[in-house]
Design a protein that fits this description.
The complex is a heterodimer of chains A (336) and B (215). Chain A is of the alpha+beta class and 336 residues long. Chain A has one domain: Oxidoreductase, molybdopterin-binding domain (Sulfite Oxidase, Chain A, domain 2). Chain A is built from eleven helices and twelve strands. In chain A, strands 3, 4, 7, 8, 9, 11 and 12 form a seven-stranded mixed beta sheet that branches. A five-stranded mixed beta sheet of chain A has the order 2-1-10-5-6. Chain A is globular and about 50 Å long. Helix content of chain B is 78%, strand content 0%. Chain B has eleven helices and no strands. With 215 residues, chain B is mostly helical. Classes of the chains: A alpha+beta (336), B mainly alpha (215). At the A-B interface, helix 3 of A face helix 2 and helix 4 of B.
Amino acid sequence: MLIKKRVSHEIAENSVTPENIYLNRRSILKSFGIVTASGLAMPSQAGFLDNLLGGSASEVPQAPRKPLEYRPDKPTDLSLTPEPKVINHNNFYEFGTSKTDPAENSQHLKTEPWTLTIEGEVENPGVVDVWELMQQSNLEERIYRMRCVEAWSMVIPWLGLELNTLLKKFKPTSRAKYVAFETLYDPKQMPGQRSRHFGGGIAYPYVEGLRIDEAMHPLTILAVGLYGKTLPTQNGAPVRLVVPWKYGFKGIKSIVKIRLTEKQPPTSWNLLAPHEYGFYANVNPEVDHPRWSQASERFIGEGGPFSSTRQKTLMFNGYAEQVASLYSGMDLKKYY
Amino acid sequence: MKGFRPGKKTSLTLRIVVHVGAFLPLLWLFWAVPQGALGADPVKELIHFLGMGALRLLLLTLCVSPLAKALKFGLLVRLRRPLGLWCFVWASLHFVTWLALDLGFDWSLIGEELVTRTYIVVGFVALFLLLALAVTSIPKILRSMGKNWKKLHRTIYLIVVLASIHFWWSVKSGWIEPAIYLSLALFLLYLRRRTILPGLFTNEKLTDLKGSLQK
């Protein structure tokens, strides 16, 4: 018999938000009689309700997403950020620097076919067909807190696989100390890569990196979906990294290459502003960003556009029990 | 501008344009923000929108005098007051939005941020000076101040520099846009170099400077 020890981010079954409430959130909202002040007739009622939820800012048609089969996460007492907010409030500078830009400008990104190259310090370098990977893997739902370095946060039900299951297939060598990730570089499809101004001054392609023990940690996932379906382009379709105890910018999107290395790889935000963004970027309420406090965050949850609430930021974003040991003896003020 | 003889009517029309132009975007916000025009979490965008509006109004205020001279249209200076006051309104809304929606009136956090974040200190000083200018624009106070009024209102030169720096330091990445605003501010100050420089260097200081250069 498998005896599973419950760790702190897993919460008892009786405290979960009932699925039917979650699934029927729109009709529930409707039943609250939320109406527009302007009284204008709206062409699309669903879209309009998304707007009331603080959802879609634009009428840009969204690229279709496929439903995925997955094993649901254990119940949690975390209240989820509504899907319209998750997919309309994004940092994906390849598609523009404003939060609504990615949802507007990314819909034409060609995500099929998509391959992921795995190279460097591995015994069997190779190429993965990401859509085949989605079919073959036993996808899991992971309900994680997401904490942006800009001091806002969400709770997102990701679908994906542990990164270690993929990396192990390629047999990392003993020299593999780090894992480097790279986003697609395609200025034709990504307007931010065509213009320094539009792309926020980042040197593209966007690159990220993890220490090998961080990459192999069971909390670290390659996400291929959210809210039961494949990822929207603005959230990093078709495959992105999610490291829940680190600031959101570590979660590199639309990955095309994974390279295992002996030396610490460069990372995009660190290259742009080394004194503000470190390689580690662990969520830490005690180490402030030079220009703002990281002690608290605005949680973006249910409700209207101004419903976000300020809450205390947790050490390692609430995953200290699982990951603090990775950094024992390290000066986290120095290795921010 | 041949045949352009601006008069009282033009000045009045322009003032109406200023009032409408500065008020309409605020009205638009009331309608658009609930529609999601500024995104799922409009707080940051709203603060940015109001701050940028205040900075633009500030630059416009500083355009008035040079334009009035260039166009030989003295009545144009009447635009300074409404533009300056609207700038104060936008800057105040920018500040209050930050207090209320970003920090949720968490006073200990507000106090900490106001003291420890350089860009916030700079912005707050700029707003505080703007408040002084706004209050002294009340006709009664204005008249009672005499020559001091002009002296005080020259702090707008300092304010525009502070506001531009506040913008530059507040952006997460990308320096082009703040650089454009700072250049505009510095250009508008350059046009006034004959007023500003003698103020900065009194005759005494200039003699000192010359003396030290000769050594």
